[in-house]
Specification:
Elements (H helix, E strand, L loop, with lengths): L2 H10 L14 H7 L4 E7 L5 E6 L3 H12 L3 H8 L3 E3 L13 H7 L4 E9 L2 E10 L7 H19 L3 H10 L7 H14 L3 H14 L4 H9 L3 E2 L15 E2 L2
Antiparallel strand pairs: 1-2, 1-5, 3-4, 4-5, 6-7
Helix pairs in contact: 8-9, 8-10, 9-10
Length: 246
């Protein structure tokens, strides 16, 4: 893989309304060019939630789901700090760094993660997370190329004209991968009389306790199969508790 391959990836990047993604191009080719096993790009929305835009299948996609459900991981740290989070040896991290995520990531066969903020000044528009089974730092060339791709993604998210309009329209629609989470957070907020941030924490806690993706739990809330009513589980109740039923 050389400069021509990187140029091919950059040329093919563009907003796209395809299934579960707003970034065109082949994520597998991008991963190959950057010499990693997988790549995932998520955008940060105005509500503070992340939206998976583009990823390779398998471990990268699952890692994004886990970070979203558990509320911890390199993506959240990079988004909060607008600084890269480079972890070449995942097994060497202190147990308290990402206590819930670390064992799950290890079970996925991930040995190293490299997360880059998609930043404009102090504002973080999203993250690009690379993962690899073999631990060790990125080569200097791959690190430079990763920043080039990250900067290209920022340009895409800010690009003017019809492509920006398409991105904005998708961001406001139910086409988002985690649209149900947005809706469920609002419903739980009303049901339990708590803030949207607290509602999301309850959804995450419930999902983690029951070993389910937060998206599935949210779908149950939206379908009224699961509720967090104030009269049964008020703001003082253990976070994450809900009751099955209407």
């Amino acid at each position: 893989m050389g400069s021509e391959d990187l140029a091919a990836v950059l040329d093919s990047l563009h907003p796209s309304g395809g299934d579960r993604g707003l970034v065109g191009a082949d994520p597998n080719l991008c991963a190959q060019v950057l010499r990693v096993d997988g790549v995932a790009v998520s955008a940060t929305t105005d509500s503070g939630l992340s939206e998976l835009l583009w990823s390779t299948a398998g471990a990268s996609e699952r890692l994004e789901e886990l970070q979203f459900t558990l509320g911890q991981g390199p993506g959240l740290e990079a988004a909060a700090s607008s600084a890269p989070v480079l972890v070449p040896y995942l097994s060497r991290l202190p147990d308290g760094r990402w206590p819930a995520l670390l064992p799950e990531a290890t079970a996925l066969g991930i040995g190293a993660v490299f997360c880059f903020p998609l930043s404009l000044g102090s504002a973080c528009l999203g993250t690009m997370t690379l993962q690899r089974a073999v631990p060790g730092p990125l080569a200097d060339t791959a690190l430079t190329d990763a920043w080039v791709v990250a900067n290209a993604l920022v340009a895409i998210l800010l690009e003017g004209g019809p492509q920006q309009d398409a991105f904005a329209a998708a961001a406001d629609s139910s086409d988002f991968y985690r649209a149900a989470v947005h809706q469920a957070s609002g419903m739980v907020s009303v049901q339990a009389g708590i803030s949207l941030a607290q509602a999301l924490l309850r959804l995450r806690a419930h999902a983690y306790r029951h070993g389910r993706p937060v998206e599935e739990v949210s779908e149950d809330v939206v379908a009224r199969r699961l509720s967090f009513h104030d009269d049964e589980y008020g703001p003082g109740a253990p976070a994450g508790e809900g009751t099955e039923g209407p």
